[in-house]
Design a protein that fits this description.
8 helices; binds zinc ion; HIT domain-containing protein
């Protein structure tokens, strides 16, 4: 296990539509050696200040063959919508008393909350408690940024059962015009196997309550922008 950051991890390969960082460590190792804040602070600086990317999809994936290697992808295609989504009337990541928030909340940590996905997709969500919209807004001085990544690893370990490099969830954060929710959301995409065999059985009551709640447009509509709500109704995710 390494206890420092290699400068090589912060030199990305250029992709046609973005950047790829390759790191010979896992997210778990970065966290257990207290290097996550330093690594992600520098990585985001490279993306936003050296490569001038503001609107992008950020993805962390563990290598399937080399144990303890992870890759960070930054996709910034030119097909994104040009305008940022307007804020919803209620930020369900801030207003924990809202029924949709109460139904999906899994745990509270010092700086973060973990949730089921509010549209009942097979993923978990981690959010900072503060309403911030970008990774670069996480605070260094009080340990918030290190805690954010530590909480991500702990939530995955706690909720997903036995995870290893073969079934480790994909992690994603949308920035700028790629977002649907204004609040920073770390999306934890779990495998079908983990979803069906670990998370559904453990949270069956909450998931059933969420399904019922999503049928009642009036009760959840304030948590979505008008455009987003209409799309979800069309897809049959919200409403009958
Ligand atoms: Zn918020």
């Amino acid at each position: 296990m390494t206890s420092s950051i290699s400068s090589k991890w912060l030199v990305p390969d250029k992709l046609p539509n973005g950047l790829k960082f390759q790191c010979s460590t896992s997210l778990g190792n970065l966290v257990s050696t207290n290097c996550a804040a330093l690594f992600f602070r520098q990585l985001v600086k490279c993306v936003e200040e050296e490569h001038n990317l503001i609107n992008y999809h950020f993805k962390i994936q563990h290598h399937r063959k080399k144990t303890d290697h992870m890759e960070v992808f930054v996709f910034a295609g030119d097909d994104q919508t040009k305008q940022e989504a307007k804020s919803a009337a209620v930020c369900s990541s801030c207003d924990v008393e809202h029924e949709l928030s109460q139904t999906t909340l899994l745990s509270e940590q010092k700086y973060t909350y973990s949730w089921l996905d509010s549209r009942n997709r097979p993923k978990l969500i981690l959010t900072p408690k503060r309403h911030i919209e970008r990774l670069c807004e996480l605070n260094d001085e009080n340990g918030e940024i290190e805690a954010f990544w530590r909480d991500a690893v702990e939530v995955i370990d706690r909720e997903c059962g036995n995870v290893n490099e073969l079934n480790y969830p994909l992690l994603a954060i949308n920035h700028g015009t790629f977002r649907k929710h204004a609040h920073l959301h770390l999306k934890i995409d779990v495998t079908k196997d983990i979803w069906e065999n670990v998370i559904i059985p453990r949270h069956r009551d909450k998931i059933n309550r969420l399904k019922q709640l999503l049928k009642q447009v009036e009760l959840v509509k304030d948590c979505f922008t008008k455009e987003h709500l209409e799309r979800e109704i069309q897809k049959g995710v919200i409403g009958n």
